Amino acid sequence: MDSYQNFKAAIYCPVGNLIDITDFDRFGKRFDWIEKHINVGKVYLETYRHGTTIEKEQIERVIAFFKERGIETAGGITTDGPDDGEGGFNPLCYTSRTTRRMLTEVITFTASLFDEIILDDFYFTNCRCDSCIEAKGTRTWSSFRLELMKEISEEVIVHPAKQVNANVKMVIKYPNWYEHFQDAGYNLEDQPKIFDALYTGTETRNPMYTQQHLPKYLSYFNMRYMENVAPGRNGGGWYDPYECSYNLTSYAEQAYLTLFAKAKEAMMFSLGSLLHSEFSLCVPMNGQIFSDMDKYLGRLGNPVGTACYLPYHSHGEDYLHNYIGMLGIPLEPYPEYPKEAKTVFLTEGASMDSDILNKISYSLRNGADVVVTSGFLKEASKLGFQHELCNVNYTDRKAIVNSFAYSNDGGIRFGGREEAAKSIVIPQLEYKTNDNWEIIAGYGEDNSFPMLLKTLYGKGRLYILTIPEDYGDLYHLPRKILLPLRQMFYKDYPILLDSISKIGLFLYDNDCFAIHSFQPWYDEVAITLKGECTAIKDLVNENTIKAEQENGRNVVRIRLAPGINYVYQLVKDKRF
């Protein structure tokens, strides 16, 4: 089977799976089935997990098995301990000398076998034992753990590994729960400087019936965030089949979005799961996904989208970016303020930057548009938002709305009324008439409540977007209300998407884009082509679709099937 041209397919192999291989001929026949469907380019072979370490002779036999098949090998370590009977995960206690000594032994053993080692995303701490309480002192748990894990990374992990093998590449995998990294010691600011590379968790599974609450767009968003945390050093995206059996498309979407984000590797967890009957369909599914996407991924440029700012160690409005992404709004997240971006989107977490108001002012005065959320407004009020930027107040009052208005003339009057499928609860914002403009509103009784406000500042526009108390209620906004929202975010995009929610849009810097419907039903979308674009070329089927004139605009209408990728390139040709 030929190699994939645009990425490498990798499998993570937990230590228990490797220890269980006693008959390599028999295992070879089982692995043949995986290779029948997937061109496996690399395996990560684990030496330690859950208190279990593999014997040197066994891991050497496993390495030889894969090398004979022409498959690249790397090491893996999961830094957790045995089950303590309390439930939940059991990361190690890093203030324990015994733990440090044991972990260094595992690291040096693994570095003697491999030139690359990845740490699975159990490399965090939730320990509150007496030793950790004493070491913490008067610090917050976050600050204590950030410093602790920085120290462990340097002294217990990377330095000992390099002493044994100067060429070893040390990789830290960051989980999907980026809003909470600092609370468990994941130091996104300092650790990427200590490790040679990082890896990204793109597991989203079931957004509703799991305890992590991660919308599907996170499989793309987290990859893009890590790409901008360590440009050129993000090894790939890692996903698994757990809690996806309710709808196997939910498993496929993890792979789709990981690759749309331009991952160098697509890591499948895990060897044992892929060989288990419960998840056996995932193997041919991955094979078809990889084969299909490899045909067009190389024709897509670099991902682009509205710039988001997620300062290091920040949190607030948990994972809201991904709910916005599920509205068909492409986002590109950065850990540093994107001062040159033409449109900037800020959620509550950005208010943790004490200089954020000056940065917003800089953007606006230089002609950029800045979109902030109601959560950001609430927290930034403590920094002087009303004094510095515009006089809008977050109140403690709530409103229940199920019909909405939108303005066609910049906020002077409303131009329509749209009903939502259900009532949603929103915070009430107060603004000053004729100083701020209500672009979208939710109707009350003899009243309306701002959903989108606009204020002119310098050469730019400042928008305030009201976020429902349940972020998922954003999906219930009517199609005609989503359109002006997208217009705000799409300022410099070459297209404008008109659709219901839960339609993903992925943009690239070479006039290519992809659309993916997360809805369970067929639906039509309208795509307005801007500038000189007259048609779109289908990069999957190589067809060209001519735009039709609608109210003086070039518009393409496409009927989307659930869970299918539609990939296009804009055409600038007057013959169409």
Features:
9-stranded mixed sheet, 8-stranded parallel beta barrel, TIM Barrel, Immunoglobulin-like, single chain, 576 residues, Rossmann fold, alpha/beta
Please outline the helices and strands.
Elements: E1 8-13, H1 15-19, H2 24-37, E2 40-49, E3 52-53, H3 56-68, E4 72-77, H4 97-111, E5 116-119, H5 130-136, H6 141-164, E6 169-174, H7 191-194, E7 197-201, H8 218-229, E8 234-239, H9 248-260, E9 265-269, H10 271-274, H11 282-294, E10 303-304, E11 306-309, H12 320-325, E12 331-334, E13 343-346, H13 356-365, E14 369-373, H14 374-380, H15 385-388, E15 392-406, E16 417-431, E17 437-443, E18 448-457, E19 460-465, H16 479-489, E20 495-498, E21 503-508, E22 512-517, E23 523-529, E24 535-538, E25 544-546, E26 548-550, E27 553-560, E28 565-571
Parallel strand pairs: 1-2, 1-9, 2-4, 4-5, 5-6, 6-7, 7-8, 8-9, 11-12, 11-13, 13-14, 14-19
Antiparallel strand pairs: 2-3, 10-21, 15-16, 15-17, 17-18, 18-19, 20-23, 21-22, 22-28, 23-27, 24-25, 24-28, 26-27
Structural commentary:
With 576 residues, the protein is of the alpha/beta class. The protein has 3 domains: 8-295, Glycosidases (TIM Barrel, Alpha-Beta Barrel); 304-488, Class I glutamine amidotransferase (GATase) domain (Rossmann fold, 3-Layer(aba) Sandwich); 495-571, Sandwich (Immunoglobulin-like), CATH 2.60.40.1180. The protein is built from 16 helices and 28 strands. Strands 12-11-13-14-19-18-17-15-16 form a 9-stranded mixed beta sheet. α4 (97-111) packs parallel to α6 (141-164), α8 runs parallel beside α9 and α9 (248-260) runs parallel beside α11. The model has no long low-confidence stretch (mean pLDDT 96).
